[in-house]
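Weekly structure sync, notes
Attendees: PL (lead), two postdocs, one rotation student
Agenda item 3: pending single-chain targets
PL asked that the sequence for the first pending target be pasted directly into the notes so everyone works from the same version. It is reproduced below exactly as submitted, 314 residues in total.
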Amino acid sequence: MTRLERRLRLVIYVLSFGLIAGAFFGGWLNHNPFPFFDGWDGNIQFQMMFEDRPSALFDQHNEHRLVITRLLVLLDYRLFGGHHIFLTLTNYVFALGAWYTFWHCLKTINRDDVEQRDLLLLAAVLSGWIFLWAQEPNFIWGFQNQVHAAQVFPLVAFIGLSHAAQRSRDESRHYLMALMLGVVSAGSMANGALALPLMAVWSILLRMRFWQTITLVGAGTLILFLYTRDYFTPNGHSSVFSTFLEHPFSVLLFVFKFLGNPFAHVISPYWPASWIVIAFGALLCGTATYLPLKLAKRRSGNALVPGLVLYIVY
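Predicted structure, written out during the meeting:
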């Protein structure tokens, strides 16, 4: 390794450590025991409703049914005095869980092909990206832990399903874990309700056992039925299907820009860079289309790859 390479590695490590430290220090500096925005009805109003009607746990919040967040809110108010410290810490715990899961997959897949020092360098880059302060509200707002939950629980569920498809000695344990986390995912955000249906389709692609696929189909159907029961379009929101039919090109651009949005904070939020951001989002959509087709033709020898591909699709 040359001196220049060593210096570049040191710069990457320092920057990654600075981003992580900045995220935790920023959370400490910006902590506020008062709710922010949605937190008023999501925290305070929910508490009042739950006292009289426990089924409020499953009520809609915009398009979502935030069961996980509401359970954490109950814990925060009843065990920790409602100071939002516990809720804020869960944001960091979920982010740390996402980092560890990705790092475990990265290390396992590349163990025989990449040197340990290079894997550690990638781990540093990954940690700096996940704790990027661009998602400040998702760290300092206690009510935002559903954003992290909607990523972590489906991710681990998909990895478990991928392991179960290998029909190893621990197949049943991995399958039950995936099924359970698929159900839990529906209590994160609206997109989490799609985890089980996607897993059912994926089980066919991975040629899993018939009873496993049928169980996933049944569970996914039940979750969608319960999720959409008594569902209503929130005030000020139009129907997803009607919006797509009336403005398909605008919806497509919005999706690309939304998916590429993390790059906006790194590049620039202004006009010339917005098209680069849209291009990144389009690239992600293209990847999510290409990888499953490639996986269908040739199954990967690594158990983790199908789960990560499904996460990209999700």
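Discussion points:
- The mean pLDDT is 84.
- The radius of gyration is 21 Å.
Action: rotation student to compare against the earlier draft before next sync.
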